[in-house]
Design brief:
This protein has eight helices and 17 strands. By secondary structure, it is of the alpha+beta class. The chain folds into two domains: 158 residues, no CATH class; 165 residues, Protein Transport Mog1p, Chain A, CATH 3.40.1000.10. Strands 9, 10, 11, 12, 13, 14, 15 and 16 form an eight-stranded antiparallel sheet that branches. The protein is elongated and about 65 Å long.
Length: 330
């Protein structure tokens, strides 16, 4: 119990000292926080060494460093760095994503923003026992991931907004806005179909968007069947492969992940999976959004896919996902 109280006191005192140590704007009486730092999809975990090396650490790794959905090879949701409590001060408190886990007198779970720096997401998990701590981490793992990922999307778009492609084609034809970086170029541009590409060292990143006649769906499987059928049809018609007669299709060996969500106030279905080129040896991950745009009596498709053989692709897919999730209907 003394050990538990020691660490609980450590974090309480640390939080108090840090809050008092921050500069204050005399005119507004608001804390002036330092800028946060850290790469996209990275997470600093502050937890005692003994907990990290045991079942609690395993629960954190299993929940937050599990394989990312929809990628052809295993890449963790987050790259995790472990920080013992005694090292959590100064520069290490400025990470954008921080999880603090500890033993204490009461079970607690909270998600806070801009605690030590800004922009920043901090998740606090306190358990009376190791079993309680593990339960809280596993029970809230989806919330934790969504919380940190939402901050990563905002940070990605903030960086993208520094250098945007100046083009009104999507606005004029589809009535939408996407924050496209200047590194992207149009591969195909028609009145109703757009294929936008960015060249990277290992290959290329792609965005396609188009509209379809409006229809309803009876269930999730109906949506998934429609998405696959439409992707394969559009791929054959609009996205040729490198050899004659080859074209992009959904890889048949793996069933895509599907999730119902909201984008800019509209219902959508997100699917993640892998694509391949029929008639050639090319493949990679994709993320697709089928948006129920009742207002304009249509379905709108936003999709991103990556070709980067032998390279890690998680961060490429996340950039595409961030752009697509930032769609605005005009």
């Amino acid at each position: 119990m003394q050990i538990m109280k020691k660490y609980f006191l450590f974090f309480a005192v640390t939080a108090f000292i840090l809050s008092c140590d921050k500069k204050t704007d005399k005119n507004s009486n608001l804390k002036i926080l330092p800028d946060s730092n850290g790469r996209i999809s990275t997470l600093n975990v502050v937890v005692d060494n003994n907990l990290w090396e045991g079942a609690v650490g395993n629960a954190i790794r299993d929940s937050l460093a599990k394989p990312t959905e929809g990628l052809p090879q295993d890449e963790p949701v987050f790259n995790i760095s472990h920080l013992p409590p005694k090292t959590f001060s100064g520069f290490t408190t400025k990470g954008r994503n921080i999880l603090i886990a500890q033993l204490g007198d009461e079970n607690q779970f909270s998600m806070q923003e801009n605690v030590y720096a800004k922009p920043q997401k901090v998740v606090f998990v306190v358990g009376k026992t190791e079993s309680d701590l593990i339960h809280l981490i596993r029970q809230n793992s989806d919330k934790i991931i969504d919380n940190f990922k939402s901050g990563d999307v905002i940070e990605t778009i903030r960086r993208i907004n520094k250098s945007l492609l100046s083009d009104k084609s999507l606005k004029d034809s589809l009535g939408i806005y996407l924050p496209l970086p200047t590194a992207y170029r149009y591969a195909t541009k028609t009145k109703s179909f757009f294929w936008i590409r960015k060249t990277i060292q290992e290959g290329h990143m792609n965005i396609v968007t188009y509209e379809l006649p409006y229809r309803d769906f009876s269930n999730e499987q109906d949506v998934l069947n429609f998405v696959i059928k439409t992707r394969d049809s559009i791929g054959k018609e609009r996205i040729p492969g490198p050899t004659d007669g080859s074209y992009l299709i959904t890889e048949e060996a793996y069933s895509p992940f599907i999730n119902k969500d909201m984008l800019d106030g509209r219902t959508c279905w997100e699917t993640k999976g892998t694509w391949e080129v029929k008639g050639d040896f090319m493949a990679g991950p994709y993320v697709s959004y089928l948006i129920d745009d009742k207002t304009n009596k249509r379905l709108l498709v936003l999709e991103g896919f990556v070709f980067a053989p032998s390279a890690l692709k998680r961060d490429n897919v996340f950039e595409l996902e961030s752009i697509l999730r930032s769609v605005k209907f005009l």
